[in-house]
Amino acid sequence: MQTTLTDRRSFLKKMAMASAIAAAASMFPGIMFAAEQEKGIPKNANLDWKKGPCRFCGVGCGVLVGTENGKAVAVKGDPNSPVNKGLCCVKGYHSIMALYGKDRLTHPLVKKNGRYVKTSMDEALDLIASKMKETIAEHGKDAVSIYGSGQWTIPDGYAASKLFKGCIGTNNVEANARLCMASAVTGFLTSFGLDEPMGCYEDIDHADVFVLWGNNMAEMHPVLFSRLLDQRLKRGVKIIDFATRTTRTSTAADKSILFLPQTDLAVANAICYEIIKNGWVNNSFVEKHCSFSKGLTNMGYGLEDNYTFTDKPEKISFEDYKTFLEDYTPEKVSKLSGVSVRDIKYMASYYGDPNKKVMSLWCMGMNQHTRGTWINNLVYNIHLLTGKISQPGNSPFSLTGQPSACGTVREVGTLTHKLPHGVVMNKEHREFAAKIWGVPAENIPSKPTYHTVEMFRALDRGDIRFMWIQVTNPMVTMPKLKRYRDGAKKEGRFIVVSDVYPTPTTDIADVILPSAMWIEREGMYGNSERRTQYFEQMVDPPGEAISDTWQLIEVAKRLGYEKQFPYKEETHIEEIYTEYRKHHDNIKHNMAPLEVLKSQSGAIWPYVDGKSTKWRFNAKYDPACSNGEDFHFYGKPDGKAIIWQRPYEPAAEEPDNEYPYWLNTGRVVEHWHTGSMTRRIPVLHQAMPHAYVELHPDDAERMQIKTGDAVRLTTRRGEITLPASINERGVPAPMQVFVPFFDENILINDITLDSFCPISKEPDYKKCAVRVEKA
Fold first, then answer.
1. Which of 132, 167, 181, 272 is labelled catalytic?
2. Which positions are annotated as binding substrate (predicted)?
3. What DSSP character marks residue 61?
């Protein structure tokens, strides 16, 4: 018997209620996700269930999607997925509802005389190609650009990189992962010579202690956090929350330690000081597998246009490093950081205990940092000094924010300096990519052009005249946003935006292309633990919407690159993935064949001899190790990881008499990034309908502000007004405020600062000076 529309609505309502209860329960210590998701599914429902990764964050949970009559009507956690083991967070439980918002984009729109006019897909693609040709002819190939996303599928990003770098011949390719994961990339590269974590989620099942470095894991990665809580129930593990603000993670942790913004650099050095002072160094490991270096300091904050920085590493000795750490005694650092001497020694004692396996976990708190590369290096220093690395349960682990920030940005190489297997600066890498792409090697420029912040500055200046934006919403996410919004609107700019819903970014577009979303097309994502996951097309996209991959292919053909883009529409994903694997055809980064990805819930690279490599650089697990030792950090020429001498340096902008508070921004559990999808899900929107500003209760009392009162925030970039939140979900430290960025009606990034880490070029969204007043 066919299910009626009323039945489906009833079913979705039941699903929403059950999943909201289950996910909410996970936020409190000692309560696991319940198996409530099955309760809303009628026993006699005739659903076709298919597997895939969740559409949202970088955890990469496996989900099963139930379809009926051409619609996705149910979703549940995939019990076969080793990532989430059948669990989902509140966003995952509701993910399919994001497909069916009332204002879904279904047809191309072209701006004519200031108004958007519905047009055919062919006409829109013809216009895009002609504008690209015109721009290149008038202003040169570096006047065109593409800005993508960690939400791009692997084929999307690969097609973009091949078209722009290989065919057109410009390195104007960037992705929004520059705003969230670039410091993790440069941290890995500078310390180990290769990107991405050496461990995997299975480390959670082996670790004795978890140190969360500025990471509100309970809300940002709730499924993984539930696994930590589960291990505490089973094995009594310790969870330490090291943060600038009290959150749900803090209340669930065994110990919460607050530090002043930016001083995590000093505390990490103090932990290393304690490890050396107390004789906790794993001397054999350090002597065999580590070297010591220092780089340039006082390197600025990237605030000026065309800012450039090149580090100059210099080898130092272990004795030099120990002398440097004398400035970072717990007593000195306590005065700077606000962390007690006792708490510094407490954290150091766990790292230093040879009988405790320690997992360090972080995300934006470390990465969105004007010294983001440095703080990544410093946490690696702790693990390297103690030899607690590349072993089950001993793992420094960078978590990811987007479903394919690793797979599509870091692995495919959709950043200005990157190629799928290397960097544009390397002649051999360019020749290797050119051969696979079927283009002359000289097509690929040898110099990077613009990282994300500088790309939008170039658009403002007029150096870039054409920008294609896919699967991201920079008119909400860019720091110092007003400059870049105004710049995109200037005369002589042509903006194409591919998306599924209207956003502030589609508002600036000259052409809007409707995209197929997630399971409306075929693709792959790559998650935080190097796991590549495949999903098939399960339902049809609405109207004329097509995948971002096929949009790029169609424009490439119109530009005359049929030879480089010979793919057939019905098989192009398989063809692209097969071609892409050639870039990683080596023992250090081999990708699993498509048939493997189709048959199981993903595979971790390097995939060698039919097996995922769970722990890299450890000869017991990693077949790429070849030095005859237990460990081999083969990303570096000498096979050794680097312990970096990195000092504390202040933030780009600190509170003063005029702007006496710190402003911090971030996310909430209900919404994902800018909320363009999750705000279309009624239960999530109702649970968190608008942004707010958290204040410390003492600050609120002094200013006579209570929850719901209007508060005006003013920085050197402008001001916004929004409601206060006192003693609700999170509590900032005194003289600090926190604002989530999901609300397009309250654009907090209008007033944030576009300073960035000079090495990674990732902006610092966590620290700028603000004045707080009752409005």
1. 181
2. 741
3. -
Return the residue matching tokens 């549940």. Answer: 76
pLDDT exceeds cutoff 80 at 23: no
- 714 annotated among ligand-binding-site residues: no
Q: Give the pair of three-digit tokens for residue 201.
A: 């989620």
The answer on pLDDT for 571 being more than 80 is: yes
Residue 402 annotated among the catalytic residues of the structure: yes
Structural domains in the chain plus CATH codes: 5-100 (3.30.200.210), 119-180+404-566 (3.40.50.740), 195-402 (3.40.228.10), 661-752 (2.40.40.20)
Neighbour count for residue 290 (Cβ, 10 Å): 20
Residue 617: pLDDT over 70: yes
Asked if the model's pLDDT at residue 558 lies above 80, the reply is: yes
* Half-sphere exposure (Cβ direction) of 661: Cα atoms closer than 13 Å: 25
Average pLDDT, stretch 363-392? 98
- Single-letter code of the amino acid located at 360: S
CA pair distance 694, 711, nearest whole angstrom: 10
Q: What is the pLDDT of residue 46?
A: 85
For the chain, helix, strand, coil in percent to 5 are 35, 20, 45
> 582-607 burial, b for 16+ CB within 10 Å, e for fewer?
ebbeeebbbbbebebbeebbbbbbbb
* Number of residues written out for the chain: 775
Q: Is 283 annotated as a binding residue?
A: no
* Strands 144-148 and 466-470, bridge-based pairing: parallel
- Reported as a single tens digit per residue, the pLDDT across 122-165 is 999 999 999 999 999 999 999 999 999 999 999 999 999 999 99
For residue 410, the SS3 value is: helix
> Any catalytic annotation for residue 217?
no
Average confidence (pLDDT) over 448-452: 98
768 is an active site residue = no
Contact 246, 730 (CB under 8 A): yes
- DSSP annotation of 103 reads T
Per-residue confidence (pLDDT) for residue 507, from 0 to 100: 97
Q: At residue 31, does pLDDT exceed 90?
A: no
Catalytic residue among 401, 407, 413, 635: 401
Amino acid at 118: K
Apex 619 CA angle, 616 and 625, nearest 5 = 75
Name the active-site residue from 51, 91, 356, 418.
91
Nearest-5° Cα angle at 451, 447 to 453: 150
Q: Which amino acid is at 357?
A: K
Nearest Cα to Cα of residue 681 among 39, 214, 75, 62: 75
∠ CA 14-18-19 to the nearest 5 degrees? 115
The pTM for the full model equals 0.94
Q: Quick check: 177 and 477 in contact, CB under 8 A?
A: no
Residue among 200, 307, 246 at smallest CA distance from 615? 200
Query: Is 364 among the catalytic positions?
Result: yes
478 belongs to the catalytic site: no
What is the residue whose two structure tokens read 């530090």? 259
Whether 347 is catalytic: no
Is pLDDT of 282 > 60? yes
Q: How confident is the model at residue 761 (pLDDT cuts 50, 70, 90)?
A: very high
* pLDDT score of 17 more than 50: no
pLDDT tens-digit series, residues 211-258: 999 999 999 999 999 999 999 999 999 999 999 999 999 999 999 999
* pLDDT score, position 45: 72
> What is the secondary structure of 590-647 as a DSSP string?
PPPPHHHHHHTT-EESSEETTEE--STTBTTT-TT--SSSSB--TTSTTS-EEEEE--
Q: How many CB atoms lie within 10 A of CB 109?
A: 22
User: Which is catalytic among the residues 15, 167, 180, 198?
Assistant: 180
Q: How many CA atoms lie within 13 A of 84 on its CB side?
A: 29
766 is in an annotated binding site: yes
Catalytic residue among 88, 198, 347, 364: 364
Element of type H or E holding 210:
strand 209-213
